[in-house]
Design a protein that fits this description.
Elements (H helix, E strand, L loop, with lengths): L13 H49 L17 E7 L5 E5 L6 E2 L2 H8 L7 E5 L3 E10 L2 E8 L1 H51 L24 H58 L5 H32 L6 E4 H15 L4 E5 L6 E4 L1 H17 L6 E9 L2 E8 L21 H6 L6 H11 L3 E7 L2 E9 L7
Parallel strand pairs: 8-10
Antiparallel strand pairs: 1-2, 1-6, 2-3, 4-5, 5-6, 7-9, 10-11, 11-13, 12-13
The protein binds adenosine-5'-triphosphate and magnesium ion (MG).
Catalytic activity: ATP + protein L-histidine = ADP + protein N-phospho-L-histidine
Protein name: histidine kinase
InterPro entries: HAMP_dom, HATPase_C_sf, HATPase_dom, His_kinase_dom, HisK_dim/P_dom, HisK_dim/P_sf, Sig_transdc_His_kin-like_C, TCS_sensor_his_kinase
Length: about 475
Amino acid sequence: MTEAPRTARAPWSIRRRVVLGVVALVAVVGILIGTVSVFALRQNLLQRLDSQVQEVMRFVTSGPGGGSVPGGSDNLRSGLVIVVDVDGADPAGVVYDGPGPGTALTDEQIEQALAAPKNQVSTITIPGLGTYRMEVHRASNGVAAVGMSTSEVDTTTWTLVGIFALVTAGALLLAALGAVALTRVALRPLGRVTETAARVTELQLASGDVAIPERVPTAEADPRTEVGQVGAAINRMLGHVESALVARQHSEEKVRRFVADASHELRTPLASIRGYAELTRRIDDDLPVDAIRSLDRIESESIRMTALVEDLLELARLDEGQGLVFGEVELVRIVTDAVGDAYAAAPDHDWEVVAPEPPLTVEGDQARLHQVVVNLLANAHRHTPEGTAVTVTLAEAGDDVVLTVADDGPGIDPELQPILFERFARGDTSRSRATGSTGLGLAIVAAVVDAHHGEIRVESRPGDTRFTVRLPRRRVLAD
Ligand SMILES: Nc1ncnc2c1ncn2[C@@H]1O[C@H](COP(=O)(O)OP(=O)(O)OP(=O)(O)O)[C@@H](O)[C@H]1O
Ligand SMILES: [Mg+2]
């Protein structure tokens, strides 16, 4: 399975994006509503303050005494400032802080109050008193200034800001929790689709299984939803892959059957060719030398072809998984016998066996396992020069038995190694042909080892070629 490419920054999951998006949206909306509301309310409050200022100013400039306020001082709101400067007298100012006569303003405060722009209400700061909405009225006989503290408006404004901040924070928390819960529910079906895909990847599709029983559940394959479309597409793809695998398996079976049938059918005519060649050579003593040589060739080639046909038939049987006869097989015996035969056939090689005391048994097919050892020894003899030392080692390894055939010959061509166990893979073709090799020996070895659920490995470099076969001691039943 290919892994997702690793980038420097991990990509954002859908859940994270949705949650952050919703939170950001709620934050923006909250701040917008809060700002507009607070601003509007503040403007409204200031307007009311201004109209009160103007009302008091009207009274001050038109009232009979020019020094008192309608309704008496009890009606005064705290923070009212009145400054009057009539007929060139020293300006007098007073600040009312709730009911009572009020407090006189200092000269500096009076000066600051009178410095406000004329005939309009504006915001000024009076030292020691704070911020005021102030209006100054100048007439021919004097000056009057009226102002009201904005402290209440400020307090209301900040209270409102606080309330909005709290409400927005609460809304953000709710939105985040809601988005987490919603995405979790919305993405759950996607999780089930992923689980199905993961189960499919565990199927042994490369070897054996061609049926894909896994499908995305119907609830997650309804094309009316987005996840359903993914689910439905995966189901269609699985169906497609399954039918392609079945078709391929059928055609492979056909080829296999054909090879098996053809090999089988070739056995009889080959036996006849060989038999007649032999017979002709025996019964006619007067044959010319050339004819005798030709008959010898016909005989040897038919023997070679019979071996090839037998190998093909053997591979076809192993492919079909039939014909294996399982029993208790004593490997030390098989190995010593095979090395004995190899020594008889090639005394010019140095043969050695390293094996424990018998018995060392595995559950397997006696004839096939014998074939494995024979093929490996034949290679160590055929593809190495005279004088090569061949060591066959047999050892126990837990629940397995390990057979190693090592030689110090010239090694296997590195280009050949990756395909060594494939059919008809052989090195140096001209030489191989001369020695009658077909390139099926190791393919048979691999197929037999595979049928026993074992493992074969090769490591080769000049001077050290090593085939390692690992076989389970107990028969592994196919799952
Ligand atoms: N011990 C070895 N040393 C060097 N080369 C080897 C050795 N064993 C195998 N090979 C190479 O691997 C090739 C494949 O071996 P394999 O046994 O499959 O076929 P073969 O020996 O050529 O033919 P046959 O079907 O008669 O066994 C050989 O042709 C040879 O080039
Ligand atoms: Mg061989």
